[in-house]
Design a protein that fits this description.
The structure holds two protein chains of two kinds.
Chain A: H1 40-59, H2 65-87, E1 99-104, E2 107-113, E3 117-124, E4 131-136, E5 144-148, H3 154-168
Antiparallel strand pairs in A: 1-2, 2-3, 3-4, 4-5
Chain B: E1 6-10, H1 32-35, E2 41-48, H2 54-59, E3 74-78, H3 79-87, E4 95-99, E5 108-114, H4 119-132, E6 134-136
Antiparallel strand pairs in B: 1-2, 1-3, 2-5, 3-6, 4-5
The chains are: A alpha+beta, B alpha+beta.
Amino acid sequence: MIDLYPVTDSQTRITLPTTISRPMELMVLPGTVSGHYMTTSYFTIINVYRLIEPALKALDEIKNPDIKSDASSLLITLVDIIRRLQGLNYDFDNLPTLQVENIEDDSVLIEWIFNDFRIGFTIEKNKDESGWYLVTTKRLGFINASGYFLKTEREKLLTWLIIFIKDNS
Amino acid sequence: MKYPDRCLKGILNNDFLSDDGIAKAHLFYFDESKYLRSDGWVEQSINWEDDSDAIGFTLNQRKLDGSIKFVAGVAVVPTEVIDWHKRSVSLQGRFSYERAQIADNKYHGNLLLIKGTPKLTMQQLASSLALHAQVEDKR
C-alpha cells in the first residue's frame, strides 16, 4: 500500500484522502519535486475531486450545519463511488462538475447537468424530505424517476446513478 | 383551446443560468408562498409563442420603472414536453397550463401546479423543464 502526495502546478502538496491499495505501475515524472512517485492514476483521481470542488465551495454559504454536513457527505460519497469504479476501469473523464443550484435557508439543490439528462439531489432541513431525481430527454425515453433518501440504500442508489451517467453521457 | 408548439419563460437575471448559459432548475420553480390562487393552483407566468413576434415581445417586456424585465433572455420550452408531464403518472391532475391574456400582453399564460405537491416532485418537474429549455436572447 502506497501513500501518494501529488504536487500540483502551483507546487502545492495535497494529501490524498485515502491510500490506494490496488496494483499500479509506478513511474517518476520529470519535474516533480523531492522525487515523489506518481502514477497516471493520480491525475484521474484528482479529476474526480474537480467534479465536486465548486459545489463544496458553494456549500460554504450555507449556515445550517446539518444541511451543510448532509450535502458535503453526499458529495464525498459520490466521489468515493466514482473512485471505486475507476478501480474497475470505468472511465469518468470529461464529466461536468456538480452544481449547487439553489440555496435557501432550509434546503439546497445539487444538480448534475448533462445534455440529455439531469440528476438532482435535494437536501432538506427535514431529512424525510431529502431526495433525488433523474430526468431525461425523449432520446433517453423521457425517464422521470425520483425518491426520498430515507427509503433507499443511498450508496446503491448513487452507484446506479453513476453507472447511468457512465452509460449515457 | 389551441396552444402553439412552444412556450416562453423570461429569465430575470443570470442567477438562473449556468456559466455555460444553460437554464437552471430553479428558473421553473413554483412558489406556493407567493403565487397560490384561491382555486388551489400555484401559477407560474409564461408567454405562449403564438407568432414570430412573441420572443421579441417577451425580451422587451419592461418593469414598472421602464427597465428591461428579462435581462438574461428567454427560455423556450416545447409544449410537447409540458404535455408529456401533464399526462405523466406522478403529475396527472397536478400539473396543467392555461392562457391568461392580460391588458398589455396577449401572449400571457401560466403553468399551473396543484397546491400541496411535494417539493421534490416540483423540483423534478422544474429540472425537466430546464433540461428541455433552449435559452435565446436575440436582442
